[in-house]
Amino acid sequence: xxxHVLLNNVDHKDLRVITTRSAEYGDNVMLAATFPxxxxxxxxxxxxxxxxxxQGQFEPVALLGFKEGQNLFLTRQGWDATxxxxxxxxxxxxxxxxxxxxxxxxxxxxxxxxSRTQGEPIFREHGGNTEFLERMSSLLxxxxxxxxxxxxxxxxxxxxxxxxxxxxxxxLNDGSQNRxxxxxxxxxxxxxxxxxxxxxxxxxxxxxxxxxxxxxSLSHFRALIERVNKLNAGDR
Length: 236
Hints:
The longest helix is centred in the middle third of the chain and has 29 residues, at 131-159. By secondary structure, the protein is an alpha+beta fold. The chain is built from seven helices and 13 strands.
């Protein structure tokens, strides 16, 4: 369940947000939604792939595990990567909209990170925003502003037939066979066939760098598989 409300410094003056990373606080997710402007930071740690959302539209995601509820970057010490996806970091905050469609900062009061006794304070003693809240506000603004850019990016990929489905068959050290399916990636053969004029348009639109970042990120599949092997061996 969730309870989204408009954040204010009267009703929520005592609220805090727990920033510890663990399954207890909702971090046991297999993917994080993202956008092209974040690909540079993500590709250093996570495979970037694409999926169809509930509305049937393609969206880019950072892959954190191979099955629902599995986050291979969670350890007993916390999150095992130096960069945290923005759509993960911003929780329990989210963007809501006023009656005239202006974006406004909301909070999910039922989120396990929300507390009155531990974590980062949201407001200062006399009502001003803390540095933590300012950081969260900046994250939400960046996510909101990049939604339009994501639509244009996906549109360009579809226009030039640059997305293809893939299946990843995984054999673990314990001999078990596993399969990742239902995701899409950049069709590299098609990319190589694009002429110079199309590549120039993609580059001028800022799409070409994101495309190559997504391709480069796929090298992390091997590291994800090793994380599963270590998890199965109890070495976490």
